[in-house]
Amino acid sequence: xxxxxxxxxxxxxxxxxxxxxxxxxxxxxxxxxxxxxxxxxxxxxxxxxxxxxxxxxxxxxxxxxxxxxxxxxxxxxxxxxxxxxxxxxxxxxxxxxxxxxxxxxxxxxxxxxxxxxxxxxxxxxxxxxxxxxxxxxxxxxxxxxxxxxxxxxxxxxxxxxxxxxxxxxxxxxxxxxxxxxxxxxxxxxxxxxxxxxxxxxxxxxxxxxxxxxxxxxxxxxxxxxxxxxxxxxxxxxxxxxxxxxxxxxxxxxxxxxxxxxxxxxxxxxxxxxxxxxxxxxxxxxxxxxxxxxxxxxxxxxxxxxxxxxxxxxxxxxxxxxxxxxxxxxxxxxxxxxxxxxxxxxxxxxxxxxxxxxxxxxxxxxxxxxxxxxxxxxxxxxxxxxxxxxxxxxxxxxxxxxxxxxxxxxxxxxxxxxxxxxxxxxxxxxxxxxxxxxxxxxxxxxxxxxxxxxxxxxxxxxxxxxxxxxxxxxxxxxxxxxxxxxxxxxxxxxxxxxxxxxxxxxxxxxx
Length: 510
Fold this sequence. Notes:
Elements: H1 4-14, E1 19-25, E2 30-35, H2 36-52, E3 60-64, H3 69-80, E4 84-87, H4 94-104, E5 108-112, H5 116-124, E6 131-135, H6 140-147, E7 165-171, E8 179-184, H7 185-199, E9 206-209, H8 216-229, E10 232-236, H9 241-250, E11 255-258, H10 260-268, E12 282-285, H11 292-302, E13 307-312, E14 316-320, E15 334-335, E16 339-344, E17 358-364, E18 370-371, H12 375-381, E19 388-396, E20 402-407, E21 412-414, E22 417-419, H13 421-429, E23 434-444, E24 448-457, H14 465-475, E25 484-487, H15 501-509
């Protein structure tokens, strides 16, 4: 099995002048184009720079940068030298950033110079950090000046075992504290090889990329997927529905990946009636449940049947509707090549029959081996015979299609991002005017679900909805912060004192 980074180098050697990435930066109205040969060269130069900092195999190197070419160069170079890339949401406020850096024991940190004043005090308190580099991300030129002219004779690709960790993605948990999912070179290679077969990636594909690149969907499935296949990427710094439709049409893109929130905005875009998407061979939807209504609305508006799929940070892609075959409404499709999926009784783990709802469990070379330094959580996540417990509920139809039927652990998915209520509740619990709280997800036309908080004030407190929302937004990344607050005298609880969130959902969401 060829290493996925070796595949990238092979394409650079075979087609050095082929377009790898065209980056459209709407922040500064600029566009840059990088061929595979140039991409490979800059990655080598970046590796030399990282070596000069003393970065070694196994080091955790955190990246909190906006969507930009320097992020891509650094990310690829970090993995190339055998270190571990740790992409972080650039929207994380200092409180959350401090947790990730400390928990990962990051030794090196690259951040945007534009926010240096806000995060420098946090960085100074992280004992593990050996070096912090603030980059001017306004244009690629500043980064290129840092790496150009490096002596490449000493740069060598690390000979990495398929079992070695190369990427760490933090995923929230029921305890309220995010966990670092370690993904290995073997995990990523297996996943990319599987998707190349299932989705028919081709070297003449042009992917329009509008997703974030700190997340598995945008980073691994979309960006790595295209580069692994030797395709070209048209990358936008941010999503705009009108511009996205224009680019899909006028640039004759062949592949587009998005979340339901994006697809709904495309359907509602003022230029939706004026574009022709018939040349696109693959449009996927994931990271959140695609509603039956939106599935049909997209088909009617654009004449294209969306391909829904299912994956997780810990596993990348698992199940997908077929490229050629029935794309079943409401279903996430069939297991990808090399992926095993089973449905079991959540209580005793015994297999259930077709059309019976149970917990979705998966196994395959794409599944991560562990959570970073959390052996107990890792043990809980796997069955004794090696199946990963996804925590999702679903069923298998007799012809092999899988349908998700709900989520355990009260997970909220808002705009394609996972929000675990305990993480928000921990923040609310620290507010001096809040006695108790419960966080739930309510259906939302635009976001799929919105985060809502039900709050009991301390006796005599007069805190307002706006004050609590602002408090949360200062301590949580924007998508996790509640969009509305409901004040109650008490929370509904059962005989054991457990908050009855089903009652709250009926009260707020019906």
